[in-house]
Write a structure and sequence with these properties.
With 147 residues, the protein is mainly α. It is 71% helix and 0% strand.
């Protein structure tokens, strides 16, 4: 892949997180989910494990950019999926607030994945590592809160 092609893919992916993709409520997400959040997270984990060790290798940047775009696609799917942990929340207002917080975290992850692609395209390994570290921290917080 040429650098221009990868850049175009990265830019297109940054525009692919539509607000409309998000379910309006936790209940809508649980009814509409054909795929489970657990499966999407497993798919993301496979890519993550391939991506993380190659971040420091500039020769792997084209593949790393492609993987960051794949992560963004899966993150887009995760935005509208059912968070099963929220089914246990009985107060509708609290459930809605928690679901909005989940969506906020997913959108933040999407942004970080785009930042990662940009750093890789610029051959900026230091920024890419910092971005991966931020993604790891967000993952820990998200898993603790919603898994």
């Amino acid at each position: 892949m040429t650098k221009k092609f990868i850049l175009v893919l990265a830019l297109l992916s940054l525009l692919s997180l539509p607000q409309a993709n998000a379910s309006s409520s936790p209940e809508d997400a649980c009814v509409a989910s054909a795929q489970t959040l657990k499966q999407v997270m497993k798919d993301m984990n496979v890519i993550w494990k391939q991506l993380e060790p190659q971040i420091a290798d500039p020769a792997a940047n084209p593949d790393s950019v492609a993987k960051s775009i794949q992560l963004q696609q899966l993150t887009t799917e995760a935005l509208s999926l059912c968070v099963r942990k929220l089914e246990k929340v009985t107060d509708p207002a609290a459930k809605e607030l928690e679901y909005l917080e989940y969506q906020k975290m997913v959108r933040h992850l999407f942004t970080l994945e785009g930042d990662l692609a940009k750093a890789l395209l610029a051959n900026d390994s230091a920024s890419a590592k910092l971005t991966m570290d931020a993604m790891k921290e967000l993952q820990k917080i998200g898993h603790k809160r919603f898994k």
